[in-house]
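FORM 12-B: Structure-to-Sequence Request
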């Protein structure tokens, strides 16, 4: 009588399925740190009604849980740049 966890021919993976399974596992792994380089987010803060820039406006880059990763203040023309945030920190 065979056990529930048989190691016979029927329990083995078909040779043609080994590569697709291995490829799927590799694609599901997180990228190595060298590929997840810190990035830059830039833009311009404006008033929605007047369209004028908002100098001194606070700009923050948040995680999915609301934790601040990076923050800055908009310049005179409303421009801002946030640098050095890794993609794994932000969603």
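FORM 12-B RESPONSE
SEQUENCE OUT:
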């Amino acid at each position: 009588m065979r056990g529930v966890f048989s190691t016979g021919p029927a329990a083995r993976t078909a040779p043609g399925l080994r590569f697709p399974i291995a490829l799927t596992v590799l694609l599901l792994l997180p990228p190595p740190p060298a590929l997840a380089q810190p990035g830059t987010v830039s833009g311009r803060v404006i008033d929605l009604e007047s369209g004028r820039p908002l100098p001194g406006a606070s700009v923050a880059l948040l995680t999915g849980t609301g934790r601040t990763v990076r923050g800055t203040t908009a310049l005179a023309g409303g421009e801002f740049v946030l640098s050095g945030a890794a993609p794994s920190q932000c969603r």
